Structure formats: C-alpha cells, structure tokens
Amino acid sequence: MATGKFLWSFTKKFFTFGIVGLTISDRYASVIPVRGSSMSPTFNPRTNSSSSSLFSDDWVLVEKFCLTKYKFSHGDVVVFSSPYNHKEKLIKRITGLPSEWIATRNFDVVKIPNGHCWVEGDDPSLSMDSRSFGPVPLGLVLGRVTHVVWPPQRIAFSETAFFDWVAMLYIIEKHNRSFDTVKIL
Amino acid sequence: MGVRNNVTVFLNFAKEGFDKAVLVGKLFCCVHVVNTYFCSVVLAYGPSMLPTISTGSSLLLAERVSHRFNKVGPGDIVILRSPEVPRKVVTKRVIGLEGDRVTYVVDPNNSDKSDTVVVPKGHIWIEGDNIYNSYDSRNFGAVPFGLLQGKVFWRIWPPKDFGSLRRRAE
C-alpha cells in the first residue's frame, strides 16, 4: 500500500514537472546543443575537433518571446527548422530582412519577399544556408539564441554588445588610471 | 500575543494565495500542452475556403498530432503559418505533397491558362477551395512542411454544420 502511494505521488510529480517544463521550453526559453561548425567563430569554435560529443558542443539559451511578434533585426542568431526537412533544426544568423536586396554567391541580386528572411552561417565555407536554399519564411523560426550557457569558460552573450561593453569598461579604467579621476559612473 | 496571531493569520493567508497561484500556473501549463500537442480550437473566417467553410466566422477543431508524424495527405484541410505574414495562421487544403505534379489554373478570373509544377522536397502545395478568391500556393509557391500547425477535422460552429470535415469536398 505504501509503495503504491509512493509510486502514485512520484508519477504525479513527474508529470507535473514534465508539463511545466514543456510549457516553459515552448513559450519562454529552452537550452539546446549546437551541432556542427557552421557558426564556427561564434559557436563551436574548435574546427579540428572531430569528436563532436555532447560535452564538447556548445549549449545555447534560446528565447521564445520573439515568436509573439516575429520582429527580428540584422545579426540576430535564430533557430529554425530547415525548409527542406522540417525535422532538422538549423542555427544561423539573420543577414537580411523583408524587402531588402541581397547579393548571392553567383552575383545574382534577389529581393527578399514579405515575411521571409535571409540567413547565413558565420563560417561561409561550411554552412548550408540561404545561399543554397534561398529566403526562409519567418514562420519557421523557433527562437532566438541569446547566450552560450555551456561550457562554462565560454559563457557569454552571443551578441557583440557584451564585448563592446567590456572594451568600454577597459577604456574607462585606463582613463581613470592615467588622469586620476574617479567621477565616472 | 495579538501581533503573533496577526502574523500567523497573514502567513496562512499568504500560503493559501501561493497555493492558488501554483494551481493556476499548473492549469495554464496543462492548457498550453493540450493546445499545442493534442487539439485546439481555431477561428476561421474569410472567403477562401468557401464551399466547405462559410464566409462568416466558424469554429473548427484542429488536431496537432498528425503533422508531427508526416500523416498529412492531399485533401486534408490544414492550418499553417502564412509564409508572408508569420503572425497569421491560415486555413487551406493540401493539394500536393513533395514530388507531386500539381496542375493549377494561374488566374481563374481572367483566363483558363493552366500551369504544372513539381512540388520541391520538404514542401507542400496548398490551395483554398474557392480558387477565385484565395491567396495561396498559386501566388507564393509551395510552402515548407514546417509551417504546418495542425489538421482540421471537426466543425463546432455554426451548430447546423456540426460534424466531421474529413474528405467532404473530395
């Protein structure tokens, strides 16, 4: 009787946790691994590592709040399902937004249709992106990557804003030292 | 003594409020999961599916399971994210799957000229039932399968049309 009760409460907890987790990962944020080196300088920077295991890959935080408005800007890193295989998820950087003109590899200039975007990987030689399959509908976007959360030595913002901020702090610091002023916020 | 009493009352009150909030949160999560992974109610309006779904707004039930297992075939009414306006969800009928040859009338209002295309890999061809007033694959081409959100199978409003929608117009 006691084991039955314990099992029942365990399953109840398990399902509650699962449903709450699923809701959070669908609506707010989730954490996913990055496979492959198509975003090489930003994610998975080691190109020679042939052992792509769970531990050497970068894990990134994906926020889903952008899915209510579908407003993106240049430089956003997004997760989307591939237009040719919806089971496959890709991570690329948005380089073009609707009604812009984009020059492709073979010197064509294409206009991005309404509701589409142009995505490219950070490593052009290894990436399968809009240069091979054209503009991607924004409806396929599943979320926006904001942070690297694993491995710990690489925890950082994916945007360059963070590095700008660090550089600014450094400049302020140097300024303080040389002029001996402390009145900087 | 009185202060202590007040604190206990307040603590009980806070605990009860917290429990209620957790319950509401759990309920919200359940609604979300059922809505996203099993079945949801869709409001459809507009003239594009005209003989099947009337112009006024009607409530439909859409199941969210079969498109995850590739169980969508020609003739099914589906809901999908519009490729041009990603915030909008539209209701259309699947005409062809990947690799199918689709023949369609380019501009039914003005001419009988028809065109034939092969649907690319991972895409589907969708059209409204009312080809004279529908904005669909004839305008923007085949759409990626990933835009599918569900398959419509039941109509619940207006009440006189209550019933299954499967393969009615075939």
From TrEMBL, chain A:
GO terms for molecular function: serine-type endopeptidase activity. The active site is at S38, K92. Its main location: mitochondrion. The keyword Glycoprotein does not apply. It comes from the Eukaryota. GO terms for biological process: protein processing involved in protein targeting to mitochondrion; signal peptide processing. It is a single-pass membrane protein. SUPFAM superfamilies: LexA/Signal peptidase (SSF51306). It is found in: Mitochondrion inner membrane. Residues 14-106, 110-150 form the Peptidase S26 domain. Keywords: Hydrolase, Membrane, Mitochondrion, Mitochondrion inner membrane, Protease, Transmembrane, Transmembrane helix. One of its GO terms (cellular component) is mitochondrial inner membrane peptidase complex. Signal peptide: none annotated. PANTHER family: MITOCHONDRIAL INNER MEMBRANE PROTEASE SUBUNIT 2. Belongs to the peptidase S26 family. IMP2 subfamily. This is Mitochondrial inner membrane protease subunit 2. The lineage of its organism: Eukaryota, Viridiplantae, Streptophyta, Embryophyta, Tracheophyta.
Automatic annotation (TrEMBL), chain B:
Keywords: Hydrolase, Membrane, Mitochondrion, Mitochondrion inner membrane. Residues 25-105, 115-157 form the Peptidase S26 domain. GO terms for biological process: protein processing involved in protein targeting to mitochondrion; signal peptide processing. InterPro entries: LexA/Signal_pep-like_sf, Mito_IMP1_subunit, Pept_S26A_signal_pept_1, Peptidase_S26. Gene3D superfamilies: Umud Fragment, subunit A. The active site is at S48, K92. GO terms for cellular component: mitochondrial inner membrane peptidase complex. GO terms for molecular function: serine-type endopeptidase activity. Transmembrane segments: none annotated. The keyword Repeat does not apply. The keyword Membrane applies. It is found in: Mitochondrion inner membrane. CDD domains: S26_SPase_I. Belongs to the peptidase S26 family. IMP1 subfamily. Heterodimer of 2 subunits, IMP1A/B and IMP12. Catalyzes the removal of transit peptides required for the targeting of proteins from the mitochondrial matrix, across the inner membrane, into the inter-membrane space. This is Peptidase S26 domain-containing protein. It comes from Acer negundo (Box elder).
